[in-house]
């Protein structure tokens, strides 16, 4: 594992900017967004959830069968195969 493992936490930074500190295991980053929308908070939540999302995606990816006979119909098989391709692309993007 190359990233800092979770559990990551989000804290509001105490200043006048819309900033969030995301930290885990002694490591942290500050996310700052100068607009007044909820975008920076949503980004902070997504970043903080990233390690758990990656692990869940990996678990689902390895749990899926690639045998068409394991599915009740070919349409479901093709839906699942498309989803696993997208999952692998996301895992590759996250892990380099």
Which helices and strands appear, and what pairs or packs with what?
Elements: E1 9-12, E2 18-24, E3 27-33, H1 39-63, H2 74-95
Antiparallel strand pairs: 1-2, 2-3
Helix pairs in contact: 1-2
Features:
3 strands, 2 domains, three-stranded antiparallel sheet, alpha+beta, 49% helix, 96 residues
Describe the structure.
With 96 residues, the chain is α+β, with helices and mostly antiparallel strands. It folds into two domains: 1-50, no CATH class; 64-96. The chain is built from two helices and three strands; from the N terminus they run E-E-E-H-H. It has helices at residues 39-63, 74-95; strands spanning 9-12, 18-24, 27-33. A three-stranded antiparallel β-sheet has the order 1-2-3, covered by helices on one side. Strand 2 (18-24) and strand 3 form a beta hairpin. Helix 1 crosses helix 2 (74-95). The longest helix is centred in the middle third of the chain and has 25 residues, at 39-63. It is elongated and about 55 Å long.
Oligomer: single chain
Strand residues, percent: 15-25%
Helix content, binned percent = 40-55%
Structural class: alpha+beta
Number of domains: 2
Strand order of the largest sheet: 1-2-3
Q: Got a strand count?
A: 3
Q: What's the overall average pLDDT, rounded? A: 81
Shape: elongated
Radius of gyration, whole Å? 18 Å
End-to-end Cα distance, whole Å, is 11 Å
